[in-house]
Prior knowledge:
This protein is of the alpha+beta class. About 50% of the residues lie in helices and about 15% in strands. The termini are far apart. The N terminus is likely disordered. Bound molecules: zinc ion. Zinc ion (ZN) binds next to helix 2.
Amino acid sequence: MQGIGNGKGDLWLMLDELRELYQEVILDHGKNPRNFRRPDKPKREAAGKNPLCGDQVVVYVDVDQNDCIVDVSFLGKGCAISIASASMMTEIVKGKSIAEAKALFDDFRKMCTTDDFDLNDENSDEEIERLQVLSGVRQFPVRVKCATLAWHALDAAVDGVDEISTE
Ligand code: ZN
């Protein structure tokens, strides 16, 4: 990066690069979603629909006797944001307790809808920092539903609800 020039110019350059990086992460997960499979014997599952965009996902989750998410996967079709978000979610919540996953969903939802979401507050952690790549949806309220669809489905699956819709 060029280090000469006024500070403001450098800052904008940085923001542009950051945006590109975010886009790359979203495209990568959108094209090559992780944990994109249906388990042989799904324990719990829930379908999520986002009629506004046409996104559809089914989230499969296996929870052990200690309420720990031992496996999570999904299938679905939709826009890059909905698939990328589902893919990242499966990577992030695996190994977490249900309570931790729900807390992450809460933070993620806040990050997608609140302009001044502060990453430095006490409940900020590595996981929510990873999800920051999706926070750009904040500027496009319609896209918030794409980004949170898989999380809603996960929430429904662990609560024993079969199907959710963002409408
Ligand atoms: Zn979508």
